[in-house]
Specification:
Layout lengths: L2 H8 L15 H9 L1 H23 L6 H13 L8 H12 L6 H14 L7 H24 L6 H4 L2 E2 H13 L12 H10 L17 E9 L2 E10 L3 E9 L3 E2 L9 E5 L2 E7 L3 E7 L3 H5 L3
Parallel strand pairs: 1-5
Antiparallel strand pairs: 2-3, 3-4, 4-8, 6-7, 7-8
Helix pairs in contact: 1-2, 2-3
């Protein structure tokens, strides 16, 4: 066994030491004891796993989180159940009227804790290594079956995207750990040239408070199959502000002109929405509405 093979096996070594006596790990652990570099790697790996597990355990999830997520996903995809006849309507109505007991979630979690504390024989190393592969294969199969289940595209992808979905889509993209800018330049004109070369919508007349403000960068935003642009500015009073631009024909929703934008506060995000003949604009700032409004 070489170091790379040992690392592959030891990545499944649980940080609480539960696998110390597992014979599947014996040779890899022995090599880690003999090889200083491998031993240091294992110590760092276990420390990271332990801190990650503690971080997850410290998170308190709202009781309605699952329901809220599924509701948002259903609303964005437009896949709320549609009754095709009176029987469907009666069934949907009956299911919608069902209210689970108030203590149901707590009882389920308590039962899960009791089950997890029971003594079960440990799974073999190879079973644990094969589980992620099997899960990935299952996801791929489900995706394939879903894609082939019907030829009719969803209403959202086939038509216009609601402006609320565009706003939520930017926030999700920005908060993703994979978020990055396609171009990072402080010259606004160079960013416009880049967007034009990609055939992406470009900002026309900026709010007065952004004229002459130093740019940070730009990138493409794809939300429900519609291509838009993001341009970021470093504004002295409001910090970094983000301007999202989509073509008018791609977005559903009536918006005012730039001189009278619609302002709202979504958590720590203040937003301003407006439109012109060709584009829809949403300006985001991690500030309050009154400070964002000072840019107009």
């Amino acid at each position: 066994m070489d170091k790379e093979q040992a690392k592959f096996i030891l990545r499944s070594f649980r940080p609480d030491g539960a696998d110390v006596d597992d014979r599947d790990f014996a040779e890899a652990l022995a090599l880690a004891m003999e090889n200083r570099e491998l031993g240091e790697w294992l110590a760092q790996e276990r420390a990271f796993d332990a801190s990650f597990a503690n971080a997850l355990a410290s998170v308190t999830l709202p009781e309605t989180l699952r329901h809220d997520i599924l509701g948002c996903l259903a609303g964005e995809r437009g896949d709320f159940p549609q009754a095709e006849d009176e029987v469907d309507a009666a069934m949907i109505g009956a299911l919608a009227s069902v209210q689970p007991p108030a203590q149901l979630r707590r009882e389920i979690l308590t039962a899960m804790e009791r089950s997890s504390s029971a003594a079960f024989p440990p799974k073999s190393l190879w079973w644990r290594l094969a589980l992620p592969t099997a899960a990935a294969a299952g996801v791929a199969l489900a995706f394939t079956l879903t894609q082939n289940a019907g030829e009719k595209p969803s209403a959202v992808n086939a038509g216009r995207v609601p402006v609320d979905v565009v706003q939520a889509g930017f926030i999700r993209a920005y908060q993703s750990p994979l978020f990055s800018l396609d171009e990072t330049r402080d010259d606004h004109g160079e960013l416009i040239d880049h967007l034009k070369s990609r055939k992406l919508p470009c900002p026309g007349c900026l709010p007065p408070g952004l004229v002459g403000v130093k740019s940070i960068g730009c990138r493409e935003l794809v939300i429900d199959g519609k291509r838009g642009s993001l341009v970021c500015f470093d504004e002295s009073e409001n910090g970094v502000v983000h301007l999202v631009i989509f073509r008018r024909e791609d977005v559903d929703g009536e918006l005012p002109a730039r001189d009278h934008p619609t302002f709202s506060q979504e958590g720590h995000w203040a937003t301003a929405r407006w439109e012109d003949e060709r584009h829809v604009f949403i300006l985001f700032g991690a500030t309050d509405v009154h400070r964002l409004a000072s840019l107009f």
